[in-house]
Write a structure and sequence with these properties.
Layout: H1 5-21, E1 25-29, E2 36-40, E3 53-54, E4 66-71, H2 76-82, E5 86-87, E6 91-96, H3 101-111, E7 116-120, H4 121-129, E8 135-144, E9 151-154, E10 169-172, H5 178-189, E11 199-204, E12 223-231, H6 232-238, E13 243-245, H7 251-254, E14 260-262, H8 267-278, E15 283-290, H9 291-296, H10 300-320, H11 332-343, H12 356-368
Parallel strand pairs: 4-6, 4-7, 10-11, 10-13, 11-12
Antiparallel strand pairs: 1-2, 1-5, 2-3, 7-15, 8-15, 9-13, 9-14
Amino acid sequence: MQSFAPLQTQYRAAIQADVAMRVPFVAIQTQGSEHLHSLPLPGCEYPNRVHAPIHDTPRGKMTNKLSLTLAISPYDLVSDLTAGLVVPEAIKLTSLVNMPVEEIFYRFIVNREWDVSEISLAKYVSMRSQGDDAFIAIPVFPSRIFRHASLYVRRDGPVHAPADLAGRRVGLPEWAQTAAVYSRGFLMHQFGIDLASIEWVQAGVNRPGRIEKVEVCLPPGVILTRRPEATLSDMLVAGEVDAVLSARAPECFDEGHPNIRRLFEKFMEVETAYYQQTSIFPIMHTVAIRGEVLDRHPWIAVNLFKAFEEARNRSIARALDPTHPMFPIPWCFEHARLAQECFGKDYWPYGIEPNRKTLEAFLRYAHEQGVCHRLLKFEELFPKQLLSSFRI
């Protein structure tokens, strides 16, 4: 019978070395292998670091791992995690990645069907502002996108510039949709538009029956009409609304209707200028853990964060690699390099401090618009385990 004593001695020595150096690490699983390897997080590489293989013990495979289920969209940023190539320490993760994001949100917020989930930032902060601690987020942001591109109008309609929205009917899928919060935020703060000067209409984008998933408290003077039997796409074509704010494009735009266009047709120029003026890179979604799970296992917040961060680092390395591009986008490595020029080397930051300006602006917008029932403090969003970090 194979003796495990030398391997166990090697493993204990490696763990002691890790503890002595106090360097955070994440367990990495090599494709096609059952072995896990301890790798340092970026910025913590040491030339004398011991990387210990973890072998099966005589009593069986890795024991005492906490089983968690994660639901998230199939972003490349998380693909190494959901595929099992990055393994959160002491966690056995089952990943659900084949659902539309709207289904993920609905089943997590309403039915609470799994332990860890991608979640709308607006819905999350709305719940927190109302004292609902069912979920708590970790500062992982898989979805970020500027939202000047999400305003759709008719070519023959009355809206040709943002100022023209005053006095018009504008459709949106939910008042508490994150994209709509950012869009209304830049309409207010960049273009000086009073939200009460617009008549708002809520309906499904391409299918009727969509409803709000959280309770909102509309600001004084704001009128919002619910149209559960209608769709924003049909109403925009028919002229029943003059514009649509929506994260998901209406079908009339996607299908090339000749009379439907974006309000900002040169949206990349507009959005780049907006970032240069404000340093806001809008965050759409975060990742949340069910509160009862985190209460029982407070250590999982840090372990999951480390794993998400390692998966992101690998994804960005792929995006920047000119050797054999991994994405079906011509010159993708050059686009990634240009993003670094615009946003900095860490152009898709996780964590708290690099995102403070964006998150504080979003909390202000959400409170002004009645999505948050009170102005949340930044520190209320994340678990205390991730509000500070140790130094070595």
